[in-house]
Write a structure and sequence with these properties.
mainly alpha, 2 domains, three-stranded antiparallel beta sheet, two-stranded antiparallel sheet, 9 strands, flat
């Protein structure tokens, strides 16, 4: 048997195939059929033509492209698309113009000013509210009752119903007794009954609402997504236009995030909204 050729030697295809055929014939005299098949595959893989590599740009070409205006503009637009409204260059420029010449609305400071938005757009919560509002409007005034009934039946089939038993006199929860009769006794008013009132448990109610929303979205998802997109665009527009904002210093802005307000007497310390003064001013006579 001839020695195997290395990968570097490039021979015409017909010569390569003839060599492979001769080597397979020699292998038939040795070993089992599975061994012959595996060795034959290895031989054909060795003598196959190498796949030509694609020419990739060099590191120098990459760095030279980064310095061009086209790449800078492309990266800037992509960054602005992916970023939140407050991280865009457009908002940062508007912020500097809006703050210029202003003072803190609480303490009167002119250093380290920030813009405090009184309304924050939370995507997940806003989407849930939008779905709930859409369901209420879709089935309002007795509209689409057949659809509502079908969704309710399908929801009841998927939700495991668990009930709480209530006292018919006072409405508190009662528990079953194992041996005594009547079976239920209220621990609050001591009333005895065999037929208490029944109420769906809070866990089952939450599961029922969740599955009903999910089933409703299967047929109305496009309309809800379109309305949510418009809502988000309007919110971002209001954010960029500085609607419903306060100009505060960094210290006062931090206090608002903690749920505090500035003292109206000294205009230095902070307190919770339920109090009229801060702790220092309340001690003074």
């Amino acid at each position: 048997m001839e020695p195997l050729r290395s990968k570097q030697t490039q021979l015409p295809l017909q010569i390569q195939l003839s060599q492979v055929y001769d080597e397979i014939k020699c292998l038939q005299r040795i070993g089992s059929p599975t061994k012959i098949a595996s060795l034959a595959r290895a031989q054909t893989a060795r003598h196959a033509q190498p796949i030509p590599r694609r020419s990739h740009p060099t590191l120098q070409d990459f760095y030279s492209y980064l310095n061009t205006n086209e790449s800078v503009n492309l990266m800037q637009t992509r960054r602005d698309k992916m970023a939140k409204p407050w991280a865009t260059t457009q908002w940062k420029k508007k912020r500097l113009e809006f703050i210029k010449g202003r003072t803190c609305e609480w303490c009167g400071s002119t250093q380290n000013l920030a813009i405090h938005h009184n309304h924050h757009f939370n995507g997940l919560n806003e989407y849930k509210k939008l779905v709930t509002r859409t369901i209420r409007e879709h089935f309002a005034d007795g509209k689409n009752q057949n659809e509502k009934q079908g969704l309710s039946i399908e929801t009841n089939q998927k939700v495991p119903m668990k009930y709480l038993y209530l006292c018919p006199n006072c409405g508190f929860q009662v528990y079953a007794r194992k041996t005594l009769h009547p079976k239920y006794k209220c621990r609050t008013c001591r009333a005895l009954t065999d037929s208490p009132a029944r109420k769906l448990s809070p866990k089952s109610q939450r599961a029922k609402r969740r599955i009903f929303r999910k089933l409703f979205l299967q047929s109305h998802k496009n309309a809800v997504d379109k309305a949510f997109k418009e809502l988000k665009e309007n919110s971002n527009k209001d954010y960029l236009d500085f609607k419903d904002v306060n100009v505060l210093c960094r210290k006062c802005h931090y206090a608002t995030e903690k749920g505090l307000v500035i003292c109206e007497v000294c205009h230095k310390s902070y307190h919770k909204p339920k109090y009229k003064k801060c702790f220092i001013c309340s001690k003074r006579k």
